[in-house]
Amino acid sequence: MDAPRAEPTANRTDVLHLARRAGVRVGLIVLVFLVLAALVGGRVLPLAVAALVFLAAAIAALVLPARSQLGQNAASQPGAREPDIFAFADALTDPCLILDRRAVVIHRNPPAARQFPTTASGNPVTFSLRNPEFVRAVERAGDTAATQTIELHETIPSETWTKVVVAPLRTPGREWAGDDARRLVVTFQSLTELKRVDALRTDFIANASHELRTPLASLLGFIETLQGPAAKDAAARDRFLGIMRGQAERMAKLIEDLLSLSRIEMHQHMRPTGEIDLVDLLGEVCEGLETQAHDAGVAIDFTVNAESALLTGDRGQLYEVFENLIDNAIKYGAGGGDVEVALSPANRPGYAHLVTVTDHGPGVAEEHVPRLTERFYRVDAESSRKKKGTGLGLAIVKHIVSRHRGLMTIRSRPGEGMRVEVLLPR
């Protein structure tokens, strides 16, 4: 519902007002004429000077007051400036609402219509946006004519953060409280992405610091021991040096994974351009991990249901994807039989190849599955550290698959092992 128009009434009021004042102005002009005529007749003023004075007086009486009064009357009408205000609001990329003095919505721009579809023109804004903090901000802005800035945090239907600014729109030369044409401009700016990135950065730094702190503390403790009680104990020295080497290797692997993840994220938006044959790539990965699989007591069973599987991608990154997946299957599925790696055509629109890595180990509970690709997330942290896991492997895999416009899914249940599927386009 559009705001009521006041233009016809305003125009009639202006005409009647000017007509009443016109009689007074004509009388003044006649009086000036008579005075000047008497001065010219008495030879007090020359005729040319009197004519110029009369012309100036006529212009001042008829033209300038009329224009000034008409402009003042037009400016004082509620809604006289609204087309310009509405056009300005529509040019904004953020949601924007225009409210009248009673906090009734008189206009919303297209982004506001999409984000707040229930904010209908003609209804109070509080009918649709009932957040108490928002309602108080609108009331304070209307009462005090002071700009109000608040941050709204909503958790339903999803967690969002929004910066809201409620600003008064004044009519020049008029008091706020007595101005029927006063308006409030409400703008909304989403802070959700910034908040999530900030939380992610904080969690990442905290987790990375924690992961590095443990091996560093171990190294410092062993160094102190070697410098003190075990300084002359050759057997203890050899044992401690072996442990220190393992801790140093763990830190080196963590830093390597952090750098790898950083490089992947840096090029996330750039699609790879190289050509790869997945048959050769997977065969190379399986061959490289055979020794590790033998030591863990499992065998890698690689089956291919295609003569060749060409795709566009980054060979080094895809090698890292399948090395991580098969390595995890060997480490966490040991004792459960063979690790099965299979390549076949994808039976899904938009994808050409399906690679599955399946182990028959203990598996994980279903509630853990959605979080397995989070950075530093571990189902059993102590077991993961003993197996030299950094908690970043599946996060790296997820980012690489995403860069290749692929899709990764994980299925697992306790006692049934784990199956990871990677779909890749051609």
Mean pLDDT: 80
Fraction of residues in helices?
Answer: 40-55%
Shape: elongated
- Number of helices in the DSSP assignment: 13
Query: Radius of gyration in whole Å, from Cα?
Result: 39 Å
CATH architecture of the largest domain: 2-Layer Sandwich
Number of domains: 4
Strand content: 15-25%
Side by side, the strands of the main sheet go 2-1-5-4-3
- Count all strands and give the number: 12
Q: State the secondary-structure class.
A: alpha+beta
Q: For this structure, what is the CATH class of the largest domain?
A: Alpha Beta
The end-to-end distance, rounded to whole angstroms, is 52 Å
Along the chain, the helix and strand elements come as HHHHEEHHEEEHHEHHEEHEEHHEE
**The CATH homologous superfamily of the largest domain:** Histidine kinase-like ATPase, C-terminal domain
- Classify the oligomer: single chain
Explain what you see:
There is one protein chain. This protein has 426 residues and is α+β, with helices and mostly antiparallel strands. The chain folds into four domains: 70 residues; 109 residues, PAS domain (Beta-Lactamase, 2-Layer Sandwich), CATH 3.30.450; 71 residues, Helix Hairpins, CATH 1.10.287; 150 residues, Histidine kinase-like ATPase, C-terminal domain (Heat Shock Protein 90, 2-Layer Sandwich), CATH 3.30.565.10. It is 50% helix and 17% strand. The chain contains 13 helices and twelve strands. It has a five-stranded antiparallel beta sheet with strand order 2-1-5-4-3, with helices on both faces. A five-stranded mixed beta sheet has the order 7-9-10-12-11, with helices on one face. A two-stranded antiparallel ribbon has the order 6-8.
